[in-house]
Amino acid sequence: WDHLHLEDLTGDHVGYIVYYRKKSTTNTQWSVMQVNGRENFVTPTVGADNYYLEYEIIVGAFNSLGFGPNSTVASIMSAEDMPISASMRVYGDPFNSTAMMVHWIPIPNTRQYIRGRILGYQINYWSQTITNPEIGSTNIYCDCGEGMVVGLDPDDDYWINIQVFTNAGLGPVSGDGEGSTYIFPPMNYPEYVHVASYMGNAVFVTWRGISTGLKEEPVIGYKIRWWPATENIRLANDTIVPRMLSHTVIKGITDSVVYAVRVLAYSSGGDGKKSPTVYFTLEGMVVYNPETTEILNSCRLIQATSWMYCITCLLLYCRFS
């Protein structure tokens, strides 16, 4: 509770008196605890069987002259006890080469099973292929029946178990389940990416596809990742293309904007390596020479803009030199 304001401290030996009782329709008896001094908390003991029950609380103040008025009735919960139930049917499905989705049957979120309120589940996992593996854990903060584990090794098998946790701590460990990860994603990137002008506000993109080895998951398709060159690649758009194609049309291109594009293959193992960045506009591909910083483009608009920029810079130089 909050302390009394200074203007309300009108006597010596100030303290507080706390009344509490279990909330019910039949219990009318209040238990009382006295707190001397300027403390604003107290911890009554209600017994081991009275975990996570609702209690009614009233707080009043007193001094050497007597007792002051009481507060209104407030409701609080007693402390939680350790969970006594474990999850069942634990197993993991591969998500990609470094992650898996773990599933389990959730525990009923009741006082009988949880002895409190579920905060989440802890997933414990360790490799089956290592002699003395390090046990990792991931906390999933929800009352749910699945969660993702990331940062795993590709093409590996894992043991998994689950523990529910509350404010009181971790519950018992479930039985062990099994899970695994996919093998590696594509290790090569598509080559010879080329962008050409297309009808309307679109461009035509072509590339040479890739093949995968024995340690790579088969290619499902390609992602054409494109974005305005002045923005971050994290804001890029992805155009998805089936694996049997090596070309696509990108629509929604704005005139007079320079874009960047990278092509990558993806599989069940995840995204593969991205091709080197290629720049283009609505009029076609922009060829950039990093050694000379020259921009070469068949686009008349880009050429005209570049010449106008050079002329403007020359005039400014002559004026202020």
Automatic annotation (TrEMBL):
Keywords: Repeat. PROSITE patterns: FN3 (PS50853). Pfam families: fn3. Residues 1-81, 185-285 form the Fibronectin type-III domain. It comes from the Eukaryota. InterPro entries: FN3_dom (IPR003961), FN3_sf (IPR036116), Ig-like_fold (IPR013783). CDD domains: FN3. This is Fibronectin type-III domain-containing protein. It comes from Arion vulgaris. The gene is ORF38923.
